[in-house]
Amino acid sequence: MEAYRLLYPLRTYLIVSGRLGDEVNVMAADWVTVLSHKPTIVGVAVSPRRYTHKLITKYREYVISVPSIDMLDDVWIAGTESGPSKIEKLRITFIKSKKIVTPSIREALANIECRVIDSRDYGDHTFFVGEVVDYTYKKEAFTDNEPKPTSKFLAHLARYKFVVFNEEVFTPSKT
Amino acid sequence: MEAYRLLYPLRTYLIVSGRLGDEVNVMAADWVTVLSHKPTIVGVAVSPRRYTHKLITKYREYVISVPSIDMLDDVWIAGTESGPSKIEKLRITFIKSKKIVTPSIREALANIECRVIDSRDYGDHTFFVGEVVDYTYKKEAFTDNEPKPTSKFLAHLARYKFVVFNEEVFTPSKT
User: Fold this and answer.
1) Per the count of CB atoms within 10 A, which of A68, A92, B23, B113 is most buried?
2) CA distance B21 to chain A (A)
3) How many domains does one find in chain B?
4) pLDDT reported for residue B69
């Protein structure tokens, strides 16, 4: 057993980097977390071998896009193919972000716009820490300040295997 | 909408810190990620107001324990109550870890033993980066180097609402 797999399944996200045109890229990433409420800070670990690493380093921005299971084929291409040539294969639409130049993805359930405030090398990855400067989301996927359990948020189980959440909501016996 | 909620549901874990006896603590944490494959490095964001923060700072060790839905009441207590008095309310059994002194939890599906190699303050939390030095896991929850989708791994939807994964596994159309 590889130790990191003990934390799986983990949510899978799409990381958009660069600039519309020849210099845009989309990568799938499981290694994403929240770091702070106020200000809202998030982080994503990216291998230095990824084109995304070059683009985030160059522009100091990225978008975390939230895919549903409906985007599974796109997530797979984004996660397994390399460089800008894969962009043509993706069935996604880039749209303007609100506060940063790196674009968002129309089909995603949410797009979180981040400006890099720190980056640290840990082992074989770089952890890009970003302050959330703006965001967009689909009202049908999130309601009353929380995600809907019916939104089919995508999670990565292992290799080519993905899962979604059950719609049943559990609550502790004493709340 | 608070931006960080757009990344939810996130997996919920238990963070064990300190030393058996008066100085052990267990906290629920959603803000956990993998940072590197080789070496295996993980990170967890902890508020400085938490007793866990003091204990990790003091001993430079922590265990990430993986709860199933069966431990939901314990996760809730660990996440909402404070300080060592809550430990008596938990229906968990501490057991020796393999490589560090901070104990593991018998009932958890896995226990990941971490030594702190870095800590950074981001906004209102401290991100404790740990190298995984050893781990234990239940063979019925993980098999063939991957998690079983039937293991009822716990995820946090919002506030007092939790979800688990559907057992159905999805694969991309071209793999």
Assistant:
1) B113
2) 26
3) 1
4) 97
